[in-house]
Amino acid sequence: MPVVDKTIQTRHAEIRLSETSGKGLPILMLHGSGGARQMFAKQLSSPLAEIHRMVAIDLPGHGQSSDAFDPAATYTISGLAAAVADVLEQLGIKRALVYGWSLGGHVAMELTASHPAVAGLMLTGAPPVARGPLGLLRGFHTHWDLLLASKRSYSERDAERFEQLCFGVGADPAFLDMIRRADGRVRTNVFRSMMLGAGADQKRVAENAEVPVAMVNGADDPFVRLGYVAGLSYRTLWDGRCHVIAGAGHAPFWTAAEIFNPLLFRFVRHVMEREFESGRRERKTAGAA
After folding, report:
1. Distance CA 166, CA 49 (A)
2. Is 263 within 8 Å of 241 (Cβ atoms)?
3. Among candidates 58, 109, 48, 100, which has minimal Cα distance to 251?
4. For residues 234 and 241, what is the distance between their CA atoms, to the nearest angstrom?
5. pLDDT of 115-141, one tens digit each?
6. Distance (Å, rounded) from C-alpha 138 to C-alpha 96?
7. Rounded to an integer, what distance in angstroms lies between the CA atom of residue 269 and that of residue 225?
8. Is 0.70 topped by the overall pTM?
9. CB within 8 A of 177, min separation 6: which ones?
10. In angstroms, what CA-CA distances link 16 with 44, 189, 199?
11. Phi-psi label, residue 63: left if phi above 0, alpha if psi -120 to 50, beta otherwise
12. What is the set of domains in the chain, with CATH numbers?
């Protein structure tokens, strides 16, 4: 399946993206802090991409996208979600399944709260936290390494440590370059905005979502409190449980793609079936009227 790269001009930044030519329900992939769209290579090259229009973007300040035109406005969860919404609208995508990893997961929850395009939400490495510092403490392990998520300038040692925490030993060498490239203002501004309680209450978003919500995490995630994630009262939790991939860490879509991809495939099918049934009910109601 050929992957096409393009750049889109938005109000927030010049956004670089990759997309496949599948005709099925679009799947939007949002990477984490220090990441880029190439991290989803194992999904963009999977059979799923032959069926569905998969779109992976570089968030503002990451990868081949430009830094934000107005960092103070864009480098928040709501600002990043607004940039993603611009991309969806320019691509003409009315409904999509949204997959978010780490920072991308928090952006995906904000998007779910503010934009009607989200038909299904899959999250990895992104605990749905309530607003403010107490919410963050409940969702994340508190240790020194967590401070890397809010540090503006990385030394080479910081970058290497962050790569190891996210991908373990033997990651793609290009990932380290992605971490080096990332605009450090994203880390500091997003962390500050979440500490101050800006944006949607993500705990409520995940618990009360009207669309299906899939939780897929690695058993050895160094950042996320899996007990917290499993203990939330989800209204539309897919499969009725949170999926945990044994032997995987923060990025199971990369380190355990052979397990992750079939889960994504099943979730996409579930969302499509739900969308079909919803459309059928709407047509039936319209016909009766």
Report:
1. 24
2. no
3. 100
4. 9
5. 999 999 999 999 999 999 999 999 999
6. 30
7. 28
8. yes
9. none
10. 15, 22, 25
11. left
12. 3-288 (3.40.50.1820)
